[in-house]
Amino acid sequence: xxxxxxxxxxxxxxxxxxxxxxxxxxxxxxxxxxxxxxxxxxxxxxxxxxxxxxxxxxxxxxxxxxxxxxxxxxxxxxxxxxxxxxxxxxxxxxxxxxxxxxxxxxxxxxxxxxxxxxxxxxxxxxxxxxxxxxxxxxxxxxxxxxxxxxxxxxxxxxxxxxxxxxxxxxxxxxxxxxxxxxxxxxxxxxxxxxxxxxxxxxxxxxxxxxxxxxxxxxxxxxxxxxxxxxxxxxxxxxxxxxxxxxxxxxxxxxxxxxxxxxxxxxxxxxxxxxx
Amino acid sequence: xxxxxxxxxxxxxxxxxxxxxxxxxxxxxxxxxxxxxxxxxxxxxxxxxxxxxxxxxxxxxxxxxxxxxxxxxxxxxxxxxxxxxxxxxxxxxxxxxxxxxxxxxxxxxxxxxxxxxxxxxxxxxxxxxxxxxxxxx
Lengths: 275, 137
Ligand SMILES: Cc1cc2nc3c(=O)[nH]c(=O)nc-3n(C[C@H](O)[C@H](O)[C@H](O)COP(=O)(O)OP(=O)(O)OC[C@H]3O[C@@H](n4cnc5c(N)ncnc54)[C@H](O)[C@@H]3O)c2cc1C
Description:
The structure holds two protein chains of two kinds.
Chain A: E1 2-5, H1 14-24, H2 41-50, H3 53-59, H4 71-75, H5 81-90, H6 95-117, H7 141-145, H8 151-163, H9 168-181, H10 186-196, H11 202-213, H12 225-232, H13 250-258
Helix pairs in contact in A: 3-6, 5-6, 6-11, 9-11, 10-11
Chain B: E1 3-7, H1 17-21, E2 27-32, H2 33-38, H3 43-54, E3 59-64, H4 66-76, E4 81-85, H5 90-100, E5 104-108, H6 123-134
Parallel strand pairs in B: 1-2, 1-4, 2-3, 4-5
Helix pairs in contact in B: 4-5
The structure holds flavin-adenine dinucleotide.
Keywords (chain A): Chromophore, FAD, Flavoprotein
Cofactor (chain A): FAD
Domain Cryptochrome/DNA photolyase FAD-binding (chain A): 100-221
């Protein structure tokens, strides 16, 4: 069976495109909203123009900080990684330039691993550093629906569903919440996030989930209330104080979540980003 | 030798080198319905891809099973060579391998400054080893 789709729709009329695609792909769940991320190379170049690279180094870990939001364009190939690298290296050399290029390198690094491992990246790359054999294999309904009852996590889930994009730190929080706080297998979480992201990419997505889980890193990634407030506080609603699963020191969290199987560095700080 | 440019979802660039090299070739994209359904791909990704495709001049967009659609087009248009881009995506790779059984495939690689496959499995080590190349024009 092969069927040709229309190509005479006006790019500017995104509502009409959405309606048309809904009729062609009736099995796709419709969140009702249009993503702010417009497809195509032209839109990608416009985004690049407005990206303030000089702020990136200091702000990139903050949910309201300056990041490029180019991943949909890079993952879908509208912009090429190498052209972004060349673009960045033309700017005057700074910590921001280096930070940005090293993030591009993360993407290449994940791709190299995927290239070599193929679909083995869909399974544990290494032994987990904390117990995980009891983890639930399917994603709980309340997570899929964004009705966990924890306002911060529900907000992130809704952002993901409504826009098809999340800030890197938000992805880390959500993945950590799913895997470590909710004890769901990283694969169930990764498949779910992959399906929702415009930039969905098995390499960057599934290997990042494994990084969070500790099957592709030396330790599990966890966060606490202090970290969440610091990097995401301005965008997220506050969570109820009572029964707050995040309001602990890292030592306490490790004890609660992993029953002592893993202990964080005594510094008590989360690195906040990959290592 | 009639060629066919086949875009995959990891390379939706109207200015890609392959488009320049094969300026006269028909250009196609296939929304793989079984893949979209199996992976539960959300509407935003489909819309993004579709919008990106509308920017590719004279693109033909199909819906169906990728390999079956391409084989049909190859037959109908008497194509002798399919031009496409490399991706690590194992699903797309699978289609490419399948196709290669019946036709020549020209694949354009992704461009990185360092394509060292013996790369360490930790980014920090990868970066230490290759930082200089990445930060050099
Ligand atoms: C759980 C989880 C899942 C993820 N899934 C995906 C995914 O499916 N697809 C995807 O492209 N990225 C994924 N990432 C990586 C990262 O979150 C996004 O690439 C980044 O947030 C995109 O936002 P940006 O374009 O503003 O990034 P910027 O900070 O502006 O970075 C510029 C570009 O570098 C690349 N990049 C930046 N950070 C990373 C990273 N950590 N890993 C790989 N590439 C990076 C992206 O192409 C990005 O567009 C995931 C991260 C986590 C923690």
